Fold this protein.
Amino acid sequence: MSRRLILLFAAALAASGQASRIDVDAFEKVWTTIRDKHWQAKPGGLDWQAIHDEYRPRLEKAASHDEARAVMQEMLGRLNQSHFAIIPGAIYSVLNDEAGGPGVTGIDVRVLDGQAVVTSVDPGSSAEKQGVRPGWVIERAGGKELKPIIEQARSNPAIHELQLTRAVLARLSGPIGGMLDLDFLDGAGKSAPLRLSLSLPRGALSAFGNLPPQHVWYESRTIGSTAYVRFNLFLDLPRVMASFQQTVENCKTCDGLIIDLRGNPGGIGGMAMGMAGFLVNKPNQRLGTMYMRDATLNFVVNPRTEVFSRPVAILVDGCSASTSEIFAGGLKDLGRARVFGTKTAAAALPSAFERLSNGDGFQYAVANYVSEGGQPLEGLGVTPDVEVKLTRTALLAGRDPVVDAALNWIETDSTRRNAQ
Amino acid sequence: MNRRRSLVLILAAASGFAADPLPSAESVLDRYIQVTGGKQAYQSRKTEIAHGTLEYTSLGIKGTITRWAADPDKYYASLEIQGLGNVEMGVNGGVAWENSALLGPRIKTGVERSEAIREGNMNSTLNWRKLYPKVENAGIETVDDEECYKIVMTPAEGQPVVGYYQKKSGLQVKMTTVSSTQMGDIPVELIASDYKDFGGILEPAKVIQKAGPQEFSITLERVEVNPAIPPERFDLPAEVRKLADQAAK
């Protein structure tokens, strides 16, 4: 009840026709955060106090909440740097509304051509048991259409693919042991309503510091003479690093190695350097450099005693972020890996999201990361060497065009080497 | 106007006469040895095993640290950090090394090696004359409302280490330097507090370390004094030995 009153009060302020106290407070919060946390003492090379003095009077004259937001957004635009944004509170409602619980259906999705398309189904999950297949479209979850959510989120450039995918996946979750009604379009384009049970996510629960415990999985298999690994997070360090080492050791005679980072949002940044040590044999190679206000950190690779020397393909998509980008971008720049898929999330920095007093969101980055090739990853992401998009048609045909492209490259390279 | 200026000059001169002369850096460092146990206490310590905990407060990460040391210049430390696994490091026979589940084994070189070897000197407090060819008292600065002598110690290789020693107690309460690491030069600040007697030597039971963007605290819980430590405790791990052998070829 009290929460509703506060919301009504805030709405009344927003509609009052002039900048409210909460918008002024939000402005000060944004300005102060940049002043104190930006990686440059002079953010964007600007006289930040002068920026305050220029924009504060304009904000005070703003006739509405929307105008106040526009003033703040314009101020952030002066930085001419990515990942500084004001996100309308309404977008949060779209993204967070009905975010479920820890229980999942075992389905992974991507938004392809404006539709939520099933890209994988966990073995043994309720979805698999009921016959859900990659390529199916999810039209409704819990009786609610997904299309409006997708359209609203896609209309805001501050919302990237990773957030959108998470918003869709949140609607496919709920309490463990609960049931969820999903309306699919199957491979033949027929409506397929199914009731799926919700269970624990795949993988082992892993805790790291203040991060909420998360399920981490690692899978490894061979496709022909190529090793293929995929893991969902750069977390659970002892287990994931040991598993990766094992994969590399078992793969000494493989034609190549595919590391699938699609959907991997990152985790512990140092793991990028640690894993690269199994793939790079020259000492003192760097994946990139992180610039902070009081320190510059080189992401140096230590070659391990046993290093995999055959071709390495890394698969990425718009949900590959942070450590995934540092790893893929660095190995690409060092010429050690060929990257396949679609452009990554461009979120390689410790950029933070905070809610402002006026209900809007505020995104800001606290460091700049430049990959070894000289390109900042933040805002630009990793552009694959070979762009390959997932399509519903390929998924329905049981193909993964990104894996296929990587396999073709490795096989061609192997054939060439054998011929020499 | 002139009278006023003269008055200022007289006051300035008077204050100059009234101020204590700065003690030499040497005497400040020797006093630290004295107030923390005395030369004899340090000299009689030939081996030690220190046990403590560490915590990255802002990240919510905790761990334990155990450090074995033998006079004059051997050490081995093992850190068990939640979510990161084991990190071990040491110095033996002039080889400074590190090994972790995260980054794997490596041999330290250059300035980083020199720093590790200084750190590996078990009685570095007592041996400051050997480790820092140049020391100077740079004046008085206040740390936590206490006046401290600012002692700049310059090693033969590496960045100066600045120690802040309380004028009143003689204890070191702060240290700053720029540490050379594989990832680059990182400004480091240590705040030492809660001095306690560990086997006849006063040591700070709590040290807060700010290293670049990270801040963590180390709590020293107990120190085993002059325990028997088998020499192989300081042996290089097999993977590190392999790297050292490769580097020697």
